[in-house]
From TrEMBL:
Name of the protein: Cobalamin biosynthesis protein CobD
Membrane-topology descriptor: Multi-pass membrane protein
UniProt entry keywords in alphabetical sequence: Cell membrane, Cobalamin biosynthesis, Membrane, Transmembrane, Transmembrane helix
GO MF term (any one): ABC-type vitamin B12 transporter activity
Function text: Converts cobyric acid to cobinamide by the addition of aminopropanol on the F carboxylic group.
Subcellular location: Cell membrane
Phylogenetic placement of the source organism: Bacteria, Pseudomonadati, Thermodesulfobacteriota, Desulfuromonadia, Geobacterales
InterPro entries: Cobalamin_biosynth_CobD/CbiB (IPR004485)
Organism: Geomonas terrae
GO cellular component terms listed in the entry, alphabetical order: plasma membrane
Length: 321
């Protein structure tokens, strides 16, 4: 009977739906709606609050609060109609909070273009999933961008939403997605958002603190299941996890670089300016399509270990109680 626990069923069902279906294309996606809310609130709050930091704090509180309450309210209203309806609403919200399949599909467009020998198309495909300029990148640098994106987003697109889903259900997972969306929309260190987006950027760092480190450890555990190096993953994770501007992104990137035996980081071009970043990992192997395939396997294996480990813990707790 323990396997029929609704919370376990929702988490497991959401992961399976994401793996086989990816993001729904014809249904309303909460992240899109949250994005609309953020854009509207930015206009309103900038007009009504003169202090940009205070306006940014209000944006964070209102966006995350509304996202959580609406998600919880929808589940509650569905349950009032019928328990099965509430379950389906919760399952849908949990499903769309996870992005493993979407991350794979979008990054695979880069790899498929390279397999065809079409470097210009690969550069364009990469430009949709990274912030750096891609027009002048050679093939290894394009692959580096794809590997870094999959590694980093294994943390905030897969492990983090699962962490909050497991911890507090679909409403908390949607609240996390609101935090993540805020950071992606206003968490920039430029003139427009340096002050206004400060609270969102810092809260995103806080929300990802545990999931990022958990992702690194999951990758170490997953590496041998993927034909990669667990020892290398642990060594580089320990050595290079802080070689990143983000307090969190270095953990999954270092674990992935060590498992793959590649070097990540280095120079990137943003708005016509070269930015030198610390390197992560050692160039034991070249940045190739094999490295990209390896990081995708690492993402899925890390997700599987997390889900199975959590299910085992939940079932063990039920038995002991």
């Amino acid at each position: 009977m323990a396997l029929l626990d609704p919370h376990i069923a929702i988490v497991l069902g959401a992961v399976v739906m994401d793996l086989f279906l990816g993001d729904p294309r014809t249904l309303p996606h909460p992240v899109v709606i949250i994005g609309w809310l953020i854009s509207w609130l930015e206009r309103v709050l900038r007009q009504r609050i003169s202090d940009p930091r205070l306006a940014g704090v209000a944006l964070l509180v209102v966006t995350v609060g509304v996202s959580y309450l609406v998600a919880a309210g929808l589940i509650y209203l569905g349950t009032l109609v019928a328990p099965a309806v509430g379950f389906l609403v919760a399952l849908y919200l949990a499903w769309v909070s996870i992005a493993a399949r979407s991350l794979h599909v979008e990054s695979a467009k880069v790899a498929k273009a390279l397999e065809r020998g079409d470097l210009p198309a690969a550069r364009v495909a990469l430009s949709y999933i990274v912030g750096r300029e891609t027009a002048q990148l050679d093939e290894p640098e394009v692959i580096r961008g794809a590997v870094e994106t999959v590694a980093e987003n294994t943390g905030d697109g897969v492990v983090a939403p699962l962490f909050y889903l497991m911890l507090g259900g679909p409403a908390l997972a949607i609240a996390y997605k609101a935090v993540n969306t805020l950071d992606s929309m206003v968490g920039y260190k430029n003139e427009r958002y340096l002050e206004f987006g400060w609270a969102s950027a810092r809260f995103d760092d806080l929300a990802n603190f545990i999931p990022a480190r958990l992702t690194g450890l999951l990758m170490v555990l997953a590496a041998p299941l993927c034909g990669l190096s667990s020892a290398g993953s642990w060594r580089i994770l320990h050595r290079d996890c802080r070689n990143h501007a983000s307090p969190n992104s270095g953990y999954p990137e270092a674990a992935a670089a060590g498992a793959l035996g590649v070097r990540l980081g280095g120079a990137n071009r943003y708005f016509g300016r070269i930015v030198e970043k610390p390197t992560i990992g050692d160039p034991v192997r070249p940045l190739s399509l094999e490295a990209y395939a390896g990081v995708v396997r690492l993402m899925y294996c890390s997700e599987a270990i997390m889900v199975l480990g959590w299910m085992a813990l939940m079932l063990a707790l039920k038995v002991t109680i």
